[in-house]
């Protein structure tokens, strides 16, 4: 146990307390990174897919601070999405002064799904991944037209276990949050003024009704983040985490070539 501010903390809690103490410095580092990625090549700005969740909220808030609201486009892309996610997306836009636009991808999803299922039936996960890829197609169309870059919103926890869609939310031009665990993202979110309803909401990729990250992964974010931060977690969770990390390696690398 470590002592921090008069409290006995384990390694995990002590790490988070230390991050909280230095969060303002971390914000400045990430703002500089965003400016380097966008201003360095002389590009116009950034496009961020807004889901109503914490990761896209933090990414958008950082981009607005780094570039100014007139150089950041937020895009809410529902496909039979729950109303709470739309409500939280709008709360975020108001809180951080984000220009938020809506592109309903439901009709495109409805059109492409029967064509694909004329070849083979898709399960819920594959259907959800198809939504994610349609969302990325939308973001790149806007970025292409504007001369902007697409900002990735995947955090360290998700990337480690491959909890992102290849060709979907796992595809972008730069990522200002890839080194942050989900628990660090919550600390950063509060510092950036992200609405509390977004911070405390159970994380979900909004791929099908009732879907949550932790239910789909088979372990909690605390179990995953403890492993990433301290190297320790409960044995059953570690077994599952190690398995997902191994089979998702292809998502973290450029495609093999010969």
From TrEMBL:
Residues 27-253 form the NAD/GMP synthase domain. One of its GO terms (biological process) is NAD+ biosynthetic process. PANTHER family: GLUTAMINE-DEPENDENT NAD(+) SYNTHETASE, NH 3 /GLUTAMINE-DEPENDENT NAD + SYNTHETASE. Mg(2+) binds at residues 55, 158. Catalyzes the ATP-dependent amidation of deamido-NAD to form NAD. Uses ammonia as a nitrogen source. It comes from the Bacteria. This is NH(3)-dependent NAD(+) synthetase. Pathway: Cofactor biosynthesis; NAD(+) biosynthesis; NAD(+) from deamido-NAD(+) (ammonia route): step 1/1. Deamido-NAD(+) binds at residues 133, 166, 173, 250-251. Its EC number is 6.3.1.5. Belongs to the NAD synthetase family. InterPro entries: NAD/GMP_synthase (IPR022310), NAD_synthase (IPR003694), NH(3)-dep_NAD(+)_synth (IPR022926), Rossmann-like_a/b/a_fold (IPR014729). The keyword NAD applies. GO terms for molecular function: ATP binding; glutaminase activity; metal ion binding; NAD+ synthase (glutamine-hydrolyzing) activity; NAD+ synthase activity. Homodimer. The gene is nadE. It is an enzyme of class 6 (ligase). GO terms for cellular component: cytoplasm. ATP binds at residues 49-56, 153, 182, 204. SUPFAM superfamilies: Adenine nucleotide alpha hydrolases-like. It catalyses: deamido-NAD(+) + NH4(+) + ATP = AMP + diphosphate + NAD(+) + H(+).
């Amino acid at each position: 146990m470590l002592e921090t501010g008069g409290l006995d903390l384990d390694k995990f809690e002590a790490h988070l307390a230390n991050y909280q103490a230095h969060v303002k410095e971390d914000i400045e580092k990430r703002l500089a990174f965003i400016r380097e990625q966008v201003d360095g090549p002389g590009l116009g700005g950034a496009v961020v897919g807004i889901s109503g969740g914490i990761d896209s909220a933090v990414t958008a808030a950082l981009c607005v601070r780094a570039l100014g609201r007139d150089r950041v486009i937020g895009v809410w892309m529902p496909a039979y999405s729950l109303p709470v996610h739309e409500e939280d997306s709008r709360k975020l836009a108001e809180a951080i002064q984000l220009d938020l636009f809506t592109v309903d991808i439901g009709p495109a999803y409805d059109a492409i799904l029967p064509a694909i299922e004329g070849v083979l039936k898709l399960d819920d996960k594959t259907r959800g991944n198809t939504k994610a890829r349609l969302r990325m197609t939308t973001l790149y169309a806007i970025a292409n037209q504007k001369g902007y870059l697409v900002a990735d919103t995947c955090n360290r926890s998700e990337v480690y276990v491959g909890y992102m869609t290849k060709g979907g939310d796992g595809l972008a031009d730069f990522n200002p949050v890839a080194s942050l665990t989900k628990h660090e993202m919550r600390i950063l979110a509060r510092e950036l003024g992200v609405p509390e309803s977004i911070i405390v909401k159970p994380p979900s990729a909004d791929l099908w009704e009732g879907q949550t990250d932790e239910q789909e992964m088979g372990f909690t974010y605390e179990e995953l983040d403890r492993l990433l931060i301290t190297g320790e977690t409960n044995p059953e969770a570690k077994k599952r985490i190690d398995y997902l990390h191994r089979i998702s390696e292809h998502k973290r690398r450029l495609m093999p070539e010969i």
